[in-house]
Amino acid sequence: MPFDPSILFVQFVSGLSRAMILFLMASGLTLVFGVMNVINFAHGAFYMIGAYMAFTLTQYLTGPLGFWVTLLIAPTIVCIVGGIVEVTLLRRIYKKEHLLQILLTYALIFVFNDLIKIIWGVDLRIVNLPKSLQGFVRFFGHRFPVYYFFIIGVGTAVAILLWLLLKKTRFGKVLRASAEHRDMVGLLGYNVGGLFTLVFVLATWLGGLSGAVIAPTVRLSLGMGMEIIIQCFIVVIVGGLGNIWGALLGALIAGQVYAFGILILPNFAMAFLFILAAVIIIFRPYGLLGKAA
Amino acid sequence: MCKSKRSSFLVVTLVLVFALLFLLPTSALAKKPIKIGLVDCYTGGAAAFTKPALVAWHMVVDKFNANGGLHGRKIELITRDTKFKAGEALSHARELLLKERVDFLAGTVSSSCALAVSEFAKKKKKLFMVHIARSHRITGAKGHRYVFRGCPSAAIEGVAGGYFAATKPYRAWYIIGDDYEYGHSIADNFWKGLTKFKTHVLKVGEAWPKLKETDYTPYLTALMAKRPDAVYAAFGASGLISFMKQAKLFGLFEKVPVFAYALGDSLFPKVLKQNMPIGIYAGNNYLWYYPDTKANKAFVAKYLEYTTKMGKPDPYPSGIGAFGGYCSALFLTKAILKADSVKTEKVIKALEGMTIQTAIGPIKMRACDHQAMTPAFWGQVAKVPGRPFPVMKDVVMTPPAKVIPTCREIAESRRAAK
Amino acid sequence: MDIGRAKRGATERSNTEKWLWGGISCLALIAIPFVLEKGFSQYDLYLVIKILVFALFAMSFNLVLGYGGMMSFGHAAFFGVGAYCFSLLLVRASCPLVLAFLAAPFAAAIVGLIIGYFSVKIKGVFYFATITLSFAQLVYILAFKWRSFTFGDDGIQGIPVPAFISTDVSYIPYYFFALVITLICIYVLWKISKSPFGMMLMSLRENPERAAFIGIKVERYRLIAFVISAFFSGVAGVLYALLETSIAPEILYWSMSGDVILMGLLGGMTLFLGPALGAAIMVFLNSFITSYTEYWGLFLGTTLILIVLFFPKGLGGLAVEKYRTWVKGKKK
C-alpha cells in the first residue's frame, strides 16, 4: 500500500488532536490521583455536566462572544458542583480503602446520569462551533479543521499550567507534600482538608472545561460520561499515576496508535487502547513515568 | 331465639360478603385488562428513539381503549428498562410473563435484546412484537412462529440502499460504519444490493471505528486520502451524529457524495440543525413530509395533538422511533380485534398476511417470516422553502417487494441455523 | 464437677444448636423453591437461582480480592469464558452436557493462567486493576468481533439445556441442580480458604514484603489463587448460561467486573459468605428498582453511597458486628 508522506503527516496531526482530547479529559483525573491518591470515577460525570452546560449556555448566549463566555462559565458551574461533592461526600472517605473510594465515585456516575436525564431529558444534542473557529487549514492537499488546532492549543496550555502549578508554585509544593505525608503537612499548620477541596475543585473545573471544549465535536447523550471514563483511566495509568507529563505522553502514544493503527489494521480499532495498556504495564509496571509507591 | 338466629345469619353473610370484596382483586370486578409487556432501553442515547416509540404505542393503545377495547377489555402497557443489556431484557421478559402474566411481549431497540426475548417467547409460546431492532436474523435465521416485526429489517433497508445507489454513477466506494452487528449488517446488505443492481463497482476501502467513538478524525483523513467516488456510512443513530458533525468540519461533503441511511429521520435535522449536511443522500423508513398525502398529514397532526397532550409537542414524528412503534402497535391491536381474542394462536393467525393502512400507504405483515414489508425512502438533503429544517428532495420510494429476501431464502437460512 | 457439667452442657447445647440451625437451613433450602414457585411466581424462584449463580461468582472473586488482596477489574473474563465456552460447545459442536460442563471452567482457568501470569507481577493496585481490565476487554472484543464464531454482539440464543434441568415448565429442577453445584463449590472454596494455602494468601495480602523476605514466592501463590478463582468463576458462568439459555458479550464487559466488586463490597469482603449476601442484595435491588422506576441509576447510586458512608464493612460486616454486640450483651 503506497503511503505518500502527506497522508502520514495528516494522520500524525489527527493523532495529535486525538491525543489532546484524551489528555484534556484525563488531566483532572490525574491531578486528583497525583495529589490526593484518590481515584475519581465520577470524573466522567463532570465531563458530561460540562458538555451539557455548554449546550444550554450556547443556546442563550448566541452572540459572537457567546462560546468564549460559555468556556468561562460552564467549567465554573461544574467546579462548584465538584466542590459540593467533595465537601459532603468525598471528604469522609479519604482515609478509607481505595475500593470504597472507587465504589463511591462509581455510584456518583449513576446518580449524575439520572440527574442529567431529569434536567435535560433523553434527546440527543449538539453544541455548535463558534464562527471564529469554523474554518480549516489546508496543507499538502488535505484539509484539517481549525477547531482541532484549538483543542491542541488548549490541551498544551493545560499541561503547561498544571506543571507550573505543581512544580513551581508554593501551593503546588504543599500539595505534593500532602500527597505523601498528609499528617505531617497538617501538623505544620496547613489546612490539608481545605487544600484537598481546592484541588478537587480544580480537577472538576478541568473536567468541565474538557466537556465544554470537546462538546462541539461530538453528540451529547446520556451515558457519555461512562464512555470516556475508561479511556481516561487507562491514559492516566499508562502514563504513570500522578504524573502530568506521563498522562500527556500516554495520551500522545494512544493518539498516534489510533491514527496509524487504522491505516494498517482498520478492523481492530476497538482493541488498540487495551493492547497498548497491557503491553506498557507489562514492560513498565508503574506506567511510563510513574514511580513505585 | 329465632330472631337471634336470623340476625347472626345476617351478620355472617355480611362478613362473608365484605371478606370476599377484600380478598378479590379489584380488577376481577372490572374487566380484566389485556396486558402488553414492553421491554426497551430508556437509558443512554437509545432513549431518544425508544421514548417516541413508547409515545406512539400509547397513542395506539389509547385509541383502542377509547373505542371500547376488546368487548370492554382495555389494554394496559407495562414497560421495563433493559439498559441496553440482553441479560436485563431477558430478566424483565421473565418478570413480565411469569409474574405480571402479560398476554403479549413487545420491544426492543437493541437486536441482541430482541433475539434473547424472542427465544424466550418461543419457549413460552407467547407472541413478541419487535418494534425498532433491525438485525435481519430476528425474522430471518432466528425467526419463528411467535416473533413478529412491525418495523423494517436491515436486510430490506440495506438492499434498498444498494438499489438506490445503483441508480447513481459512482463506481469506487468507501464504506465506513460503527463496528457492531447492525453496522456490518446494513453495510453487507448495501453491498449485496449494489452489486446485484449494478456491475463494475469496487470497494476501495473500509473502516470500522468502535461504537461510541468520540473522535473520527483519523478515519476521516484516511478516508479522504483514498479519494473514493462515493462513501456509504453504516452508522447507528448516535455514531451518525458525531460522524456527520466532524465530517462537516473536514469538508467531506464538498469533496465526495455520501450516502447515509437513517439520516433522513426527523430526529437528525432536529439535533443537527444548521450542521445538517446539505447535498448528501439520506434515507429513512418514514418521512413526515413525503408522500404529501392526506393520510400522512393526518398522521402528523394526530401525533402532534397527542404529544402536545403529553406535554412535549412533536410536530415531526421520527421514523425509527415513533413510526416503528406506531406500526407495530397497530399491527398487534388490529390483530387482537380481528381475532376477537387475546389467545396467542388466534392472534398469530390474524397477524399473518394482515395489512394495515398507514400514513405512507398499506404495509403488509408477510406470513412466511412475520416481517412487515416496509418501504424505504431515499433522497438528497436540501434546503426546501417552507420546511423548518433541511429535508430530502427528489425522494424515491423503494417498494419492499423489490428488495426483501424471498420466502425461500428465509426458509433456507432458518434450516441452516438449526 | 459442677463447672465441668456446666461446660459440657454448654458444648452439648451449642452442638444441638448447630444441628438445629443446620436442620432448619436444610429444610428452608429445600422448601424455598416450592414456596416461591407455587405461592408467588416462577420469576421469584428465578431470582433466587440468579442469586446462587452470582453468589458463587462473587465468592470465587473474593478469593482474589478479599483473601488475596488483589483488585482484579477483569473477572468478567472468566465468568464470560465459562459461559461462552460451554454455550459454544453445545451450540456449535453438539457436545454432550457433562463434557462441556467440565471443559468450560478449565477453559476459564486457562484464561486465568494466561492473564494471571502477566498480572500477578504487577504490584501497584491501580496498575493491577488496569492490566486485568485490559486483558478482560480484549476477551470481550474477541467475543464481540468474531461474529462468524461467537455470533458477535447478537449473542447466542437457545442454548440446548437438557430436559432434566430445563426451566421451560418449572424452575424447581434447575434450582436443585444449581444449589448442589454451588454448595459443592462453596465448600471447596471454604476448605481452600481455611487451608495453609489460604492462610498464606492472607498473610501475603497483609505484608508481601515480609513474605518475600523469608523466601516465599509471592507471585506463585497469587497466580494459583487467580487460577482457582477463574475456575470457579467459570463454573458460575456455566450455571448462568444454563439458567438464561441466552448470552451476549455484555457478560464479558467491564461493567460485569464492576458489578462483582460491588457485590463483595456490599456484603463485606472479610466474611466468607459476605459476597453471597452482596450478590443477593444486588440481584434484588436491581430487579426491584428497575421494575418500579426509570431512574434506577439515582436510586442505586444513592443506596451505594449511603452504604459506603455508613456501612463500609458491607452489610454482612455490619450484621456480624451487631450479632457480636448482641451476644456480648447476652453474656452480661
**Given the helix and strand composition of chain B, which structural class is it?**
alpha/beta
**Radius of gyration of chain C from the CA trace?**
21 Å
Q: Can you count the helices of chain C?
A: 14
Helix content of chain B: 40-55%
Quaternary status of these chains? Answer: heterotrimer
Uncertain segments of chain C: none
Q: How many strands, what sense, and barrel or not for the largest sheet of chain B?
A: 7 strands, mixed
Strand order, main sheet of chain C: write it out. Answer: 1-2
If strands are numbered along the chain, what order do they take across the biggest sheet of chain B?
A: 7-6-8-9-10-14-15
CATH topology group of the largest domain in chain B? Rossmann fold
Large-scale geometry of chain C: globular
Summed up, the helix count of chain B is 16
Number of domains of chain C: 2
Looking at the structure, the CATH topology of the largest domain in chain C is ABC transporter involved in vitamin B12 uptake, BtuC
Say how many strands of chain B there are.
15
What is the beta-strand fraction of chain B? 15-25%
Q: Greatest interface and its residue counts? A: A-B, 44 and 42 residues
Q: List low-confidence stretches of chain B.
A: 22-28
Residue share in β-strands of chain C: under 5%
Description:
Chain A is mainly α. Chain A has a domain at 25-220. Helices cover 72% and strands 4% of the residues of chain A. A two-stranded antiparallel ribbon of chain A has the order 1-4. A two-stranded antiparallel ribbon of chain A has the order 2-3. In chain A, α1 runs parallel beside α5 (146-168), α1 (5-36) packs across α9 and α10 crosses α11 (269-283). The N and C termini of chain A lie far apart (46 Å). Chain B is 47% helix and 18% strand. In chain B, 57% of the residues are buried. Residues 22-28 of chain B have low confidence and may be disordered. A seven-stranded mixed β-sheet of chain B has the order 7-6-8-9-10-14-15. A five-stranded parallel β-sheet of chain B has the order 2-1-3-4-5, sandwiched between helices. In chain B, strands 11-12-13 form a three-stranded antiparallel β-sheet. In chain B, a hairpin with an 8-residue loop joins β14 (376-382) and β15 (391-398). Chain C is mainly alpha-helical and 332 residues long. Chain C folds into two domains: 1-40; 41-331, Orthogonal Bundle (ABC transporter involved in vitamin B12 uptake, BtuC), CATH 1.10.3470. Helices cover 80% and strands 1% of the residues of chain C. A two-stranded antiparallel ribbon of chain C has the order 1-2.
